[in-house]
């Protein structure tokens, strides 16, 4: 993942949004249940600044979303999108668990926070783990990763004479699946052997060779014992 200006902005805004929203939520959890204004009798007045803290939550969420949408890769490939998403949901879920376990919070609120954390953590990990798997595959040269990054398609029988001949012999019953797979990955040394096996298959089809004779000669050919 190259750290371009756009990627840097995505990370900066994403983590800024997480910090802003987290600060607001943390303070609101400390304040707890309260109310202010109105003609009704209020059991507990909200402390000064509560409105400001409550605004930090949606503002932080919006900033986080902007950082997420700035990601060039989105959520389908390893990049800032997956990092921002995972940090927001998994980090937020873990922070909620820590808050619940270490701070005095009303029992009713605790149950709700446990549920939110249980939802947030796997939501974040889903894309985080996906990104790690994609990176590992790319480093190992997994063809599935190369196909996504380069757009190249795997070789097919229609465009590869070697595979075309293998498929033809396989359809004739001249090769077993194991023999097909072995010859498929060794095109350099298999060309002459395939030509001989095709001749043997034609002799068998015409009745010149019995099935036993064909198998014996084919085995010798595969071993490189042909003359």
UniProtKB/TrEMBL annotation:
Keyword field: Membrane, Transmembrane, Transmembrane helix
InterPro entries, sorted: SHOCT
Region span, Disordered: 140-160
Signal peptide start and end residues: none
Domain SHOCT positions: 163-186, 197-218
A Pfam family this chain is assigned to: SHOCT
Membrane-spanning intervals of the chain: 53-71, 83-101, 113-136
Protein's name in the database: SHOCT domain-containing protein
Species of origin: Dactylosporangium aurantiacum
């Amino acid at each position: 993942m190259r750290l371009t200006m756009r990627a840097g902005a995505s990370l900066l805004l994403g983590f800024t949004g997480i910090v802003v929203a987290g600060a607001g939520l943390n303070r609101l959890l400390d304040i707890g249940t309260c109310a202010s204004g109105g003609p009704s009798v209020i059991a507990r007045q909200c402390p000064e600044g509560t409105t400001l803290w409550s605004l930090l939550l949606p503002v932080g969420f919006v900033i986080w979303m902007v950082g997420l949408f700035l990601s060039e890769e989105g959520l389908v490939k390893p990049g800032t999108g997956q990092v921002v998403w995972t940090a927001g949901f998994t980090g937020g879920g873990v922070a909620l668990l820590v808050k619940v376990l270490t701070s005095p919070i009303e029992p009713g609120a605790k149950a709700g926070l446990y549920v939110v954390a249980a939802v947030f953590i796997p939501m974040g990990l889903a894309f985080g783990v996906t990104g790690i798997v994609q990176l590992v595959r790319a480093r190992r040269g997994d063809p599935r990763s190369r196909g996504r990054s380069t757009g190249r398609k795997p070789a097919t029988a229609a465009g590869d004479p070697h595979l075309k001949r293998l498929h033809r012999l396989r359809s004739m019953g001249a090769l077993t699946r194991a023999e097909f797979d072995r010859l498929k990955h060794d095109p350099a040394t298999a060309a002459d052997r395939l030509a001989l096996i095709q001749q043997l298959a034609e002799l068998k089809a015409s009745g010149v060779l019995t099935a036993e004779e064909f198998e014996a000669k084919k085995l010798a050919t595969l071993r490189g014992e042909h003359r």
